[in-house]
Amino acid sequence: MPYLSVPGPGHFKLTSDFASIGLGFGTALGLAKARPDETTVLVIGDGGFLMTMGELETVVREDLPIVIVLMNDCAYGAELHFLKMRGLPVAKSVFPDVDYAPIAEGFGFQAATIRTRTCRRRRLSWPSRTGQCFSTASSTPTSPPRS
Ligand SMILES: Cc1ncc(C[n+]2csc(CCOP(=O)(O)OP(=O)(O)O)c2C)c(N)n1
Ligand SMILES: [Mg+2]
For the segment 122-132, what is each residue's pLDDT rounded down to a tens digit? Predict the structure, then answer.
């Protein structure tokens, strides 16, 4: 993991063992419940998030200390790239450019959308408190091809 560092192996959980998308959020809920004195950081793709975003309500209701970093590339990125490599139609692998931050705010999260490096630097002091925070790191949508 080139961009993430953690205190030790017990602080890192990759949910790819079962190879299914949609497992990240539930796993993070369990970890946060088990370790209420630490902040759990969930890094999740937009595809996996779309399958499980109702859990935003669980985080708030259970008052779990979670920071969510949503990596929004407006796609089932893994499929998109394989389809492109094979010259196949990609339309079923792309999503509209949804801004998820206001949705998280509606549930009571402190939320921000980060689209540029400048924007990211400005937000570095955030999150400033424990509790629920939500950051969606959106790559600039590239008008994904619909064919
Ligand atoms: C239940 C299930 N369906 C389909 C797949 C195939 N699959 C692997 S990665 C992926 C896309 C995940 O999209 P996203 O969460 O947005 O992450 P990204 O690849 O864009 O970073 C899919 C559909 C899977 N692993 N599990
Ligand atoms: Mg994605």
Answer: 554 555 444 55
What is 41-138's CATH topology? Answer: Rossmann fold (3.40.50)
pLDDT in tens, 30-81: 999 999 999 999 999 999 999 999 999 999 999 999 999 999 999 999 999 9
Q: Are 35 and 86 in contact (CB under 8 A)?
A: no
CB half-sphere exposure, 24, CA atoms < 13 A: 25
The closest ligand to the CA of 49 turns out to be 1
- The CB of 47 under 6 Å from ligand 1? The reply is yes
Q: Kindly report the pTM of this predicted structure.
A: 0.86
The H or E element containing residue 80 is: helix 77-85
Q: Is 100 in the pocket of ligand 1 (CB under 6 A)?
A: no
Does residue 127 have a cis peptide bond before it, meaning omega lies within 30 degrees of 0?
Answer: yes
